Amino acid sequence: MGSEIILLSMANGALSITNQPHLFDLQVNGATVFDKLQRPKVVDFSSPDLTARDVERVSGLLATKGVRSYLATIVTSPSEVVLKNVRTIAEVMKENPDLRGIHLEGPFFSKSCKGAHQPEFIIERGEPGLFEKFQDAAGGAVVLVTVSPAIEKAPEFIEFISKSGVIVSLGHHDANTSQIREAVSAGATGVTHAGNGWSKEAGTHPRQIADVLAQLSAKGMYVMLIPDGEHVKKDFIEEVHNIVELLRPGHTIFVSDCSPLAGAPAGEYEVYHGTKVTIQRQPNGELRGKPLSGSYLLLSECLDALREINIIEESAIQRGASQAPFEFMRRALERIGRFPSLDPL
């Protein structure tokens, strides 16, 4: 890819950078890895069959693509699977500095905006006790939780999570402006993959537009975008980036939301609790999957796709894939001792 950056150190509270590869992806759902005989294996961080070796192999793949920091993302799943997998991921973290923490994308969502998540496992209310069970099993390694601000008792739940030192991001919801403002006041500081699992993205009524702007304009809010060329349109990326950067420079974050099928060869696959996906080769040689179930590109590839449409300056692309995610996650990473120190990463 083009010029990339690595976060080296802290100086007067600011991250210093060089021109070495180092990307930080806040949303990695897994990836497809290959053995010595080039046989593919789909690794899904939400699979009941996940092993420590699987996680290590995904980390190795990401590192070869410049993604030297990431959050392992577990999507809405049965509680017993979440408990098992956060334990597995937390064990790998002990020996793997690239794996910075765990992102729980669910189950505390609005079913009306479920996206690729399985509705039978979605919980439309805040449950502090269940979150604590997940966090205890992870040994405190959960650092980011995506929550719908429209679920029952959302403000109290968001405040509970935030006060525990975990970052809360808003996603998979159809909340109105009042609910969004309450969530922000309670401690939410992020928007998860803006424009996806977000029922008001295509709305034209002034009230719907206000609900969208309430998230993009909220004080201190970091806004995540998936620039893979499929999840959201070019114009949406450009307008969201312009709004956020005008109000809060440095608060746009680029993520891959990479599917377990990222890097998979053409073929038929089954992921996310039975979702069937077909990977096909496009006329330009790229491999794309249908139905859309997470990105089929890693973050470095997403950034290349973003560069091709030529709407955002290179410095902003670099910042949004490295410095911004570290700043967004600073408090949670410092809590578990995984924020960059004076030593090289």
Give the uncertain stretches in residue-range form: 1-19
The CATH topology corresponds to TIM Barrel
Bin the strand percentage: 15-25%
- Which oligomerization state do the chains in this entry correspond to? single chain
Taken together, the total number of domains comes to: 1
Distance between the termini: 20 Å
Describe it for me?
With 345 residues, this protein is α/β, with parallel strands linked by helices. The chain has one domain: TIM Barrel. The protein is 33% helix and 23% strand. The protein is built from ten helices and 15 strands. Strands 3-6-7-8-9-10-11-12 form an eight-stranded parallel sheet, sandwiched between helices. Strand 7, helix 3 (128-137) and strand 8 form a beta-alpha-beta unit. The protein is globular. It starts with 5 loop residues before the first strand and ends in a 10-residue tail after the last helix.
What is the element layout, followed by pairings?
Elements: E1 6-11, E2 14-18, E3 23-28, E4 30-34, E5 40-44, H1 52-64, E6 67-75, H2 79-93, E7 99-105, H3 128-137, E8 142-147, H4 154-163, E9 167-170, H5 177-186, E10 190-191, H6 206-217, E11 222-225, H7 234-247, E12 252-254, E13 267-271, E14 275-281, E15 287-290, H8 299-309, H9 314-320, H10 323-335
Parallel strand pairs: 3-6, 6-7, 7-8, 8-9, 9-10, 10-11, 11-12
Antiparallel strand pairs: 1-2, 4-5, 13-14, 14-15
Helix pairs in contact: 2-3, 4-5, 5-6
